[in-house]
Amino acid sequence: MITWEEIEKDMPIPSVTKQPSAMQLFMFSAVTWNRHLIHYSKDFAKHDGLDDVAVHRALLGSFLGQLLTGWLGEDGEVKRIEWSVRGSAFPGDEVVCKGRVKDKEEENNEKMVECEVWIEKNGKVIVPGTAKVKIFN
Amino acid sequence: MTELPDEAKRMIGVEKTKTYQVTKKDIRRYAQAIGDLNPLYFDEAYAAGTRYGKIVAPPLFCHSFAFDDVPAEELREDGLPIELDVPLPVTRAIGGGSVFDVGSPISPGDEIKVTKKIVDIYSKTGKSGLLYFIVIDTLYENQNNEMVAREKATYIQR
Predict the structure, then answer these.
(1) How many CA atoms lie within 13 A of A115 on its CB side?
(2) What CATH number has the domain bearing residue A34?
(3) How many domains does chain A have?
(4) A75 domain-assigned
(5) Low-confidence ranges of chain A (pLDDT < 70)
(6) Is the residue at A3 inside a domain?
C-alpha cells in the first residue's frame, strides 16, 4: 500500500529484472505489427552492425512501465514516461529497471510524483529516463 | 546541419488518422508480450473488483496500434515501419527515445482515434558520423474525445 504521506525524495523504487528472450521479441513485434527485421532476423541484425536481434525501443519503455505499475499496484497510475535508448539489449541479456523519487507535488488537486527511472545492463545505464505518476490516496 | 532532401521535407506536418477498436484479446496479448501477467489486464472477474471495475490496458498499450498496418508489399525490404520510411541518405535505424503521456484508461470496446504526423526531421553529426532524427507525434483519443495517450517519439537513422 503506497500513500502520499510516506513518499519522500530519494525514496528508491523496488527494482525489476527482465531477461527478454528471442520469443518475447517475436511476440512484441507481432503484437505491435512491427515487421522490422532487426528484431527477429539475426543475419539482418548482424549485417546492420549489431551483435544480435535488438530489443525494441517500445519494449524497453514498457519495462519501465512495469517498474512503475509494480511499485504502485492499485494505489496510483502512470501519467508519463520519458526514456531514451543509448545502448542495445539483446535476447538473454539481464536488464535491471530501477528508479527513485525526485519530487512530489499537488497539481490541480492531484497528487503527482516525479521519478527518475533507468535501465541497466551489466551495471551500465543503457536507458535513462524520467516518469510522472499519480497517487490516489 | 545538412540540407534535407525535398521529398523528406514534404513529409513534415502531413497528418494521418485512423480509428482502432480495442479488444480483450489485444490487451491480453500485449500484456503477455511485455511479460506482465497482472490479472487486471485479462481477468474480468478480478478487474471487476478494482477501482476500474473492468479490464484496463497497461500504460504503453497504444504501442500495439502505433504503426500503420499496411501490407508487407508496401514496406521496405528490411520491414522498417512505414512511418519511418523517409527518403534520407541513410539506412540504419538506431536507438531513439520517447515522451509518452498517459491519459484516461483504455478498456475493451474503446474506439481509439490515432492522429499521427512527423513534426520534425533534422540532422546532426555525432561520433559515428551523420545522424538523422525523425520526430513523430501521435495522439490517441477515445470515443468520448478524451486523450488516452500522446507520444512524441524520436527515431534515429544513420
Answers:
(1) 33
(2) 3.10.129.10
(3) 1
(4) yes
(5) none
(6) no
